[in-house]
Amino acid sequence: MSKTDLKIRLKIELPDGVRLGYGKIDLLRAIDREQSISAAARSMGMSYRRAWMLLEELNRSFASPVVETRMGGAGRGGASLTGTGMRIIAIYDDAQTRANEALADQLRKLADELAGDVSPPTEEGS
Amino acid sequence: MSKTDLKIRLKIELPDGVRLGYGKIDLLRAIDREQSISAAARSMGMSYRRAWMLLEELNRSFASPVVETRMGGAGRGGASLTGTGMRIIAIYDDAQTRANEALADQLRKLADELAGDVSPPTEEGS
User: Fold this and answer.
1) Residues in chain A within 8 Å Cβ distance of B9
2) What is the dihedral of CA A50, A52, A56, A57, to 10 degrees?
């Protein structure tokens, strides 16, 4: 098992106890891909109801909705991300990348404490 | 509601699906404070069983145990953090601080998208 496996998963605390983590971000990404909330939920093994609840949390948190839905005949509607939804994914991805860069040192120190280390002890000056 | 409320909560993915987040870190801190696993669990509104499970996950993940327990007469044992436990808290705290610094820009951009913004739109060149 490689010590370089360690990765950050960011959770950002929004006001009113709402959290923005990669679960919600992955849901937004799936909606963008599937152009449908139900297909997105299905692709994530998530109930439609749960997907709706997560989207409602996001819609309440942000100034504009993150997803827009289109009504269609016989339930054949669709959904797509709004500009806000797109920007939130981009900001989160950027933050995630920067976190893994900025915390490389801490992740390495933590990796040094892990079980299964077969490498010789490294010099640690500080 | 202040826009400066946004904060990072780090979750670090350890091997084998174990996650190190502030829940486990808070438990370690409580054990250090209470010098007892059951008192620590109680202070967090957590069952003893759940506290044990979280500690077991950590003990399996790291090369040495994070907590050591002392047997005592009539169940009056105690627990304290090991050096590993102490170091893990320190690394996590350090990572948490650095993340909030390193991601200040992204957090600000995200805050700009939040509902309840009464400030005028800011110039965003990129």
Assistant:
1) 10-13, 19
2) 20
Q: A102–B99: do the CB atoms touch at under 8 Å?
A: yes
Q: Report the C-alpha gap between B34 and B48 in whole angstroms.
A: 14
pLDDT mean over A82-109: 96
Q: Which domains does chain B have, with CATH numbers?
A: 10-112 (1.10.10.10)
ipTM, 2 dp: 0.81
B76 CA: distance to closest CA in chain A (Å): 30
For chain B (length 126 residues), average pLDDT per consecutive 10? 72 93 96 95 96 95 93 71 97 95 94 76 50
Say whether A14 and B1 touch across the interface (CB within 8 A). Answer: no
Q: CB of A111 within 8 A of CB of A6?
A: yes
Nearest to A95 among B13, B21, B106 (CB): B106
